[in-house]
Amino acid sequence: MPKCNEGFSRLDGEYLFTKTKKAIEEYSLKHNGKKVISLGVGDVSLPLSPAVAKAFSSAARKMGNKEGFHGYAPYFGYDFLRRAIADDYKNKGVDVNESEIFVSDGAKRELSDFLSLFSKSTALIPTPSYPVYVDANIMRGNEILFLPTDESDGFIPSPEKIGKAESSDGYIIYLCSPSNPTGTVYSESVLSRWVEVALETGSVIIFDAAYERYITDGSVRTVYSVDGAKNCAVEICSLSKSAGFTGVRCGWTVVPEKLFMGGTGLNKLWQRRQSTAMNGVSYPVQAAAFAALTGKGRKQTEKAVSYYLKNAEILVNAVKNFGAEYYGGVNSPYVWLKCPRGLTGKEAFSTLLNEYGLVVTPGEGFGAGGENYIRLSALNTRQNTVSAAKRLAEFFN
């Protein structure tokens, strides 16, 4: 019998957000089905915008007649959507070729799947960070070097802490801006230094830009705003939090044609991998994604982003009068909140759930540096957010 992948034995028993959902279910059973307000799992609460929903349903209806039926989608995405994504980059002041864009069913899988292009490697992962980065590399059997961040650096990872790679193979470097969970945004100078280090060490950056639409203060929204990034960085994007696609599933990965490792072009490798491993994203989903990136759909989804940013402001305002220390809440749908009274994230999670009927995510789940923090999601409804803010204020008072 084939052996099991030993990497799985090194994983925590359950995924972070699976644990959170189980805790909610257990609470509900103990309290006769009493519902809680969740600021935990980062699922959206607003429906698809009217223009997106219209495009989605129209495309689905077309699938029901001979003239409009679409079978297998192109492996890398329909041309109309890849053009729209390229235009979206132009709006950010960056040129990305359509041939460098690969439409996917969202960022989460791509953050893991892209590792298949590399042999056993060393991953450099800032902590605290999105747990998928760590789990994906453990399952792959990669070595992981953690780059701790904390209050002293504003939870912004600094490449000055790593020096040169220990081997000639360099690192696979995970970066996320705005960060999940801390909500912090990398400055152009910080990103420039990361690109310099990647080029110096022969490393590849996997840049998670799933929340870039939340950046509203003019900060850099794509790693390709930095000179040299196309020679060392892959960018992974998602419509989940920007256009409400958590249940629809669509995003994209940019693999520059200038990006080579050991003389091999990663763009060509990713083409080969994707054409083998998937049969494209469905036509109705891609039609909906196109609507989200253009015309009325773009304006409507921007309103949804503003709605969630206002929710974040409400949460921050509820606790800052108590001297609470926090990060994010601006340019991000997350608030990274330091627990009061020296509580750990797990203790705060338990107290908020059992005494206030409020769900948050304990910072420990995101790795070292999160022990005294909780993550709040601003992606709930306005009514629930206002109620949650009152409960938070009571907890901090």
What proportion strand? 5-15%
Radius of gyration: 21 Å
The count of domains is: 2
The CATH top-level class label of the largest domain: Alpha Beta
Give the tally of β-strands: 15
- Average pLDDT rating: 94
Low-confidence stretches: none
Q: Ends: how far apart?
A: 59 Å
Biggest beta-sheet profile: 7 strands, mixed
Helix fraction bin: 25-40%
CATH architecture of the largest domain: 3-Layer(aba) Sandwich
Tally of alpha and pi helices: 12
In terms of structural class, how would the helical and strand content be classed?
alpha/beta
Widest beta sheet: strand line-up: 2-8-7-6-5-3-4
Order of helices and strands: HEHHEHEHEEHEEHEEEHHHEEHEEEH
CATH-defined fold name of the largest domain: Aspartate Aminotransferase, domain 2
Please tell me what the overall shape is: globular
User: Would you identify the CATH H-level superfamily of the largest domain?
Assistant: Type I PLP-dependent aspartate aminotransferase-like (Major domain)
